[in-house]
Amino acid sequence: MAKAAPRTVLITGCSSGIGLRMAVQLAQDPSKRFHVIATMRDLRKKDKLEAAAGDTLNKTLSIQRLDVCNDESVAECINSLPEKRLDVLVNNAGVGLVGPVESISIDDMKRIFETNFFGAIRMIKAVLPEMKQRRRGHIVVISSVMGLQGVPFNDVYAASKFAMEGFCESLAVQLLKFNIFISMVEPGPVNTEFEMKLMEEVARSEFPGADAATVRYFKEVYLPASHEIFTTMGQTPEYVAKAVVNVIAKERPPFRTQTNTLYTPLVALKYADTSGDLSVGTYYNLLFRFTGLFHLSMSFLKCITCSCFRRRVTPA
Known about the structure:
Elements: E1 7-11, H1 17-27, E2 34-40, H2 47-53, E3 61-65, H3 71-79, E4 88-91, H4 106-134, E5 137-142, H5 155-175, E6 180-186, H6 193-204, H7 212-233, H8 237-249, E7 256-258, H9 264-272, H10 277-289, H11 291-304, H12 307-313
Parallel strand pairs: 1-2, 1-4, 2-3, 4-5, 5-6, 6-7
Enzyme class: oxidoreductase
Keywords: Lipid metabolism, Membrane, NADP, Oxidoreductase, Sensory transduction
EC number: 1.1.1.300
């Protein structure tokens, strides 16, 4: 039996973090099932990817420029593919925004949606005609648990992910008629250079337009809590990338995959009470009223996820 041709996988946002690790893991697949087109907006940032790719570079991995916010850039990249054929599209490019909403300009909000929402849709629209014609394809979107459950001071970022979730949930139904699958991969906190740099920047910001009490809550309550959450529950880009690779490898990929099971109970609160009071009240109480309970729960999670604890409870 002839060996199947490698599947062509295009990934956006590969200069660092999850995108870089996904590209490398797929390119280094022992069975060589994939040919990866790793893209980024600025090719001056390709050094890290080239170093990580090693001897897969220009073999099972190639690097191209692609700006998901630019129609011409998207068209140029897709048109460069043989017969415009793409087996898997991974929408990974994204930007973050955190802080009091009063201090965020409308232009900054539009910038988040231009990348996180319209950038992904621009890519999907570009690949759908060929996938529909061939009646085969897989579209993966790196979403977030914040596309399912809002988090304080992440209003605009969560909104962009909520929008993407709704768009894809609607589109997934009709695309099944064309044998095209959509997969939403929803990480919780991920420890990347991008996240750390963002947190450092906002800690130094003044947030003009926001009242003093809100700025104090943000800096003295939210930021320390966020740091503790990332320290306790944060996953590595490698771990999330592996989850994405597993989704891509499935013959019938799932629509939703949460990479961090520790976060699942927090998301489930939203669906346990149709009034919304349970999830909103729980977040409010943990963040602003019973902070001791919040720290205790983080300590408990650190304990149960400790590698030495896992070794003790794992049966021989």
